[in-house]
Amino acid sequence: MKSSQIFSSSSDEPADERRVRKQKRGRGAADQYDRDFGAFLLQFPATASSSPPTKKKRTAAGFPSDKVFYNRWRSMQFAKREEYLSSQCSRRPPTFSKVSLLIQKEGWTGNCPRPEDIVAKWRPVTRVQVESDPWIITKIQNQKWTGLALKDFGSKGQGVVATKAFAMGSIVCDYHGKVITGAEGRKLVESIKGDTAYLFFFQAAGRDLCVDAETFPCECHPTENTMGRMINHSSKRANLRPVHCMMNFPEGQRDVILFQAKRDILLCEELLFDYTSSSAILFEEKQ
Ligand SMILES: C[S@@+](CC[C@H](N)C(=O)[O-])C[C@H]1O[C@@H](n2cnc3c(N)ncnc32)[C@H](O)[C@@H]1O
């Protein structure tokens, strides 16, 4: 992991401790303390991967031999490590072993968050995080979403099942296809002969749009049956929610429909979403 940020703020210190210290020493002394700690950080950057400054190094650099700066440095590093571990597990909740492996890989033996705390603190990502998430962007680009398989569902045709559990809030895959206008999508619907359609109509910021997964295979994945287009419908048992995002691809922003788990999804469950958010329902529903 690469991290070389140098901190110059003192905002990591608990507010109460800071206030008491300032009251004791007066504003001038507190400012001096902040300046000294800033210099300490310049000398010993508190990154997730840096080694703690030993007493010998601290005193050789002219800092006090007590542990005041050192302890503060350690809590900054701890927070950085926590942030790093959480960032590696942003889309889906991590397992204890995944976090343990990450810690092992980094070689962190002390001053490190406990895997169970990282697991317990996991929360679904926000839309803003999703829209710039490199992992999600890569999955949309390469269509190598994991934990999904096709299965025959008889009269419904094929569908998608979970080959691993997905926790509520996880991003499962996208509804992949070229984004066209709603009018173009409706024209496509008219030309469809059978009762199966692969179109997702949506409105975004006043725009009437449609993801065309009917034109298959798509230009960008000529050899893949992209999974999102194969997900069947249910209004009552839907376990996925389609979410519109403006994804920040390297070449610019693009409208994308992502499927997010509405609840915890178990291994082997069929993935389903409610097609009424899309007008391309050309079939009789079998729940
Ligand atoms: C986006 S495709 C889904 C994949 C499709 N089952 C297949 O095998 O290609 C949508 C079509 O699947 C079928 N389908 C999806 N959900 C269904 C359901 N609950 N009952 C019956 N047919 C369904 C309909 O033919 C619908 O037009």
Helix-strand layout with pairing:
Blueprint: H1 15-43, H2 55-60, H3 68-87, H4 96-106, H5 115-121, H6 127-131, H7 134-142, E1 148-152, E2 158-162, E3 171-174, E4 178-181, H8 182-191, E5 199-204, E6 207-212, E7 232-233, E8 240-249, E9 252-261, E10 272-273
Parallel strand pairs: 7-10
Antiparallel strand pairs: 1-2, 3-9, 4-6, 5-6, 8-9
Helix pairs in contact: 4-5
Bound molecules: S-adenosylmethionine.
Residues 156-159, 195-198, 229-230, 232-234, 282-283, 285-286 line the site of S-adenosylmethionine (SAM).
Region (Disordered): 1-32
Biased composition (Polar residues): 1-12
Domain SET: 146-276
What are the defining features of this structure?
binds S-adenosylmethionine, Beta-clip-like, disordered N terminus, alpha+beta, three-stranded antiparallel β-sheet, single chain, 287 residues, 10 strands
Would you tell me the structural class of the helices and strands?
alpha+beta
Low-confidence stretches: 1-11, 279-287
The H-and-E topology, N to C, reads as HHHHHHHEEEEHEEEEEE
What's the pLDDT, averaged over the residues? 86
Strand percent estimate: 15-25%
CATH superfamily of the largest domain: SET domain
The side-by-side strand order for the widest beta sheet comes to 3-9-8
The description of the largest β-sheet is: 3 strands, antiparallel
CATH class of the largest domain: Mainly Beta
